[in-house]
Each structure stands twice: as C-alpha cells, then as structure tokens.
Amino acid sequence: MQLQDESETVMKLVFGGRLLLNGTLGRLWYRLCSWMYPRVWNKTIAQVMAQLFDNSSAEMIFRMTGNLGDLGGNYAQTPFTLLPLLIHHYNDEGGYYPKGGPNSVIAALIPAIEKTGGRCLASAEVKRIIFENDRAVGVVVEKNNNEYEIRCRSGVISSAGVRNTYLKMAPLKDLPSITPKWFLDGMGKILAEIPPSTQHFQVFLGLNKSQKELNLPKYNTWCYPFDLDTHPLTLHSYDEQLETFHRDPINGPPLAFIGFPSAKDPGLLCILLFIYYENRHPGRSVCVIAAETPLYHFQKYANLAPGARGEEYEALKKKLECDWLMWCLSAIDKIEIGTPLTSMHYFGSVMGESYGLDSSLNRFFNFDFSHCLRPKQPIPGLYLAGQDTALWGFTGGMVSGIQTAEAILGYHRWPVILAKRTLIRDLKKMDGVPTDDRDLLP
Ligand SMILES: Cc1cc2nc3c(=O)[nH]c(=O)nc-3n(C[C@H](O)[C@H](O)[C@H](O)COP(=O)(O)OP(=O)(O)OC[C@H]3O[C@@H](n4cnc5c(N)ncnc54)[C@H](O)[C@@H]3O)c2cc1C
After folding, report:
1. Residues 19-65: pLDDT tens digits?
2. What DSSP assignment string belongs to 263-283?
3. What family is reported (predicted)?
4. In angstroms, rounded to a whole number, what is the distance separating the alpha carbons of residues 376 and 131?
5. Ligand 1: nearest atom to the Cα of 141
6. Where do the domains of the chain lie, and which CATH numbers do they carry?
7. Whose CA is nearest to atom 1 of ligand 1?
8. Are 161 and 389 spatial neighbours (Cβ–Cβ below 8 Å)?
9. Whose CA is nearest to atom 53 of ligand 1?
10. Among 319, 351, 161, 162, residue whose Cα is nearest residue 252
11. Pairing of β 125-132 and β 135-143
12. For labelling alongside 147, which of 229, 316, 350, 440 has CA 20 to 30 A away?
C-alpha cells in the first residue's frame, strides 16, 4: 500500500516537473525526487520486487502482477511505478467497456468538435507540418491522392505520436532554426534510444453462437503456460517465457490476452431503448486474442500492400492461427488475423507498436527526455497530445488531451497552479455547461 502511494506521488512529481520546470531546475527537481523516493524512483518492477521478496514468493508476485501484459513489456525493463497505477485502476475503479463498442467514443466526439467549428477528416494523412516565420502554421494533408494545405488560426496539435510527428511530419532536420539545441538533442535521443512499445499478433473471431449459448465471461483473461508442477516459478520466469515466445511465436509457449467484447457490450443507449449486442447481432458473439509478437517476424512483407502480401505471409498467419484456435473450433464462423503490419496500416503506427513509445525508465525519469515530451513544444504553435505525452491506454490518451488543452490555455504557470486552478475545475464552474455534462467531468 505504501509503495502504491509512493508510486502515485512519484508519477505526479515526474509529470509536474516535466510541465513546469526547465533545464537545470528540472534536472535538480528530478535529482531531489530520486533522493526522496529511492525505493521506486527510476526502478524497474524486477528491481523493486527483488528488494521485497525472494524467489520462493514468485508465485505470489505473479498473482499480484499477472496482468502486466496490459502494459506490455517485461519485469526487467518496465518501470515499477506504472504497476500500482494498473493495479489501482482494476482494483479500485474496475474495467470499462464503451456502450456500443469503441466506435461510439468517436461517434460521440465528432458532433462536439463540429459544433464548435471543427472538421473531422477520415482517410486523410498528414504528410507534413508547415512552418513559416519560425512557427507551425498548418499541415499538408493527402486525401484521394491529392494534397491540400490546411492553415491553422493559432497552432497545430499532433496526436499521432512522437515517432510519426518527428520522423515523418516534421523531421528534426527540417524544424525551424530557432528550435533549441536541448530539444533537438533530447528528441533525437528519444527517437534513437526509446524503442517502440510492444507489438501484437491479434486474432479476431466471429462465433456463430449467442452469448447465452456460450456463456462467455465479461472479464479479460491472461493465459500463461506455466506448469507449476514441473516448472517452479522464479522472479525471472515471466521474462524468460516472454522472450522464448518473442523468438518463436509459432512453437513457443503462448502468453496471450483473451477477451469477449460481445459479452461486455451492454448495448447502445438509443433514446430510451437499450439495444443489446444480442439484439443487434442475434446468435453471434466475438472474441479477441492478442499476444505480444515482434514486428521483425513480419518485416520482410512490410513493403507489400495489405491484402496482397503473398502466399508466404498468408501461410505464416495461417500457421499462427491454427495453433491458437484449437480450443474453440466448434463455434468459429469467421477468423481475421492481425499482425504488427496490420497495426501499421490501421493505427498508423510507425513500427506496428500498440502503445506508442515504450514505457522505459528514461522516458519518465531522465529529465532531458521527459522534458521533450511535454505538450507545448519549444517551436511556437506546435503541441503534442496522445499517449506519448502521458501514459499508454485510453485513459492515458484522454488525460493527455486535458493536459494539452491546459498547455494551450496557459494553465501550466505558477500563478495558476498556486491558485489551484485546473481546466476541469474551471469547466465545472463555467456558466453554460449543462449539469449532466458537469457531473461527467472527472
Ligand atoms: C490491439 C490493441 C488493444 C488495446 N486495448 C486497450 C484496452 O483495452 N484499453 C486501453 O485503455 N487501451 C488499449 N489499447 C491501447 C490504446 O488503444 C492506446 O493506448 C490509445 O489508443 C492511445 O491513444 P492516442 O490517441 O495517443 O493514439 P492512437 O489511438 O494511436 O491515435 C493516433 C492516431 O493518429 C493517426 N495518425 C498517425 N499518423 C497520421 C498521419 N500522418 N496523419 C493523420 N493521422 C495520423 C492514427 O491513424 C491514429 O488514429 C490497445 C491497443 C491495441 C493496439
């Protein structure tokens, strides 16, 4: 419990320092924090666990941390401070599933954006950010093989991830000459030294039986192939198994996530009626299986177009598919397989990564790295949002949106902080915010 509190405090200090301090002061702040919280500051899960437990307690540790896959990565490299956040999330707040599926989040956001004068474009790739007179003034977008310039009134926010932003849309060498050296050095190191996060192999199953017939669980399951009779767990077992699976996902022991979105979906609220999944898709259910699988197994097919990657790629997917699906063959109606190449295509991630930048220690605890990941970039008019500036996951993305809005509106200044003002607190007090919306604010 004490470690959980310490970890939460440490993450607040990391982000507070990142948002408010510069250069030497920021480095001093991080140094001070490392003295105040030596047990968890800049420590991996394996390091903290080794301080607390011996090998004989490994099974208990594993029970505590068995959903590490939600973070991706292993015990030897993942910062410990992220783990209590995950445990707190599940134990104290529980899990959530959007009514009507993830699409309903976008469907709810678009009208709000358009009502305030915004426009949402789909299948429109930003090719580059336009800089003029040392500030970001717009973007060049490609749509239907044509390029269009979109000019902005006050700035450009890139929520496409640090890799997409600084490798593709605004390469470091093309940034305006006023870009400070500390930023070019820091961001250069982030791109070179922080690897992409975990990549996944995904199986999407369409099942031809209803939720009632299959009685599928609403909870998620992580499967680990440990045979405790023959293989006693040690503090390193998880990392070893993961490593073996990464090397050979076809023959290695599978470590996988299994979930049934159709069991979780309570339906979409339409006026006064609940339309349950069962009513929208009678007699059908769906299952998602995901397992960490590195891109390099598929890299040689990366230059081929989706759907035309050839027989060898299809055979590889088929082989993976067969090993995975033996357990529910009787109900399978449709199978779709996704590899890291699929993620590159659909999520626009540079290396097929699922969670943006890897959650390595330097990303949070090295001020020279952390400082570059603040929403307000040191080039006038350029802002970042999304998981790379905060934490992975839906919540990480949402929190980053609030932080970026605060950065644009000038909230990250001492007078505002000392007055205990935050964007959310101010919104709650604002005239014109409907009471229902006010209650929804965190
Ligand atoms: C298979 C899978 C399952 C997951 N499950 C969960 C879960 O259960 N719970 C959870 O909390 N998180 C989950 N995550 C993680 C979660 O999806 C991400 O952490 C979250 O979406 C990050 O939000 P974001 O807005 O920062 O980035 P993204 O959601 O990745 O959004 C970035 C957007 O930028 C777009 N983009 C990229 N380049 C360009 C360009 N040049 N021009 C225009 N647009 C561009 C991309 O197309 C993408 O839409 C999962 C991720 C994966 C891959």
Report:
1. 999 989 999 999 999 999 999 999 999 899 888 877 666 666 776 67
2. HH---EEETTEEE-HHHHSTT
3. Belongs to the carotenoid/retinoid oxidoreductase family. CrtISO subfamily.
4. 16
5. 42
6. 103-195+357-405 (3.50.50.60), 200-218+260-347 (no CATH)
7. 354
8. no
9. 354
10. 319
11. antiparallel
12. 350
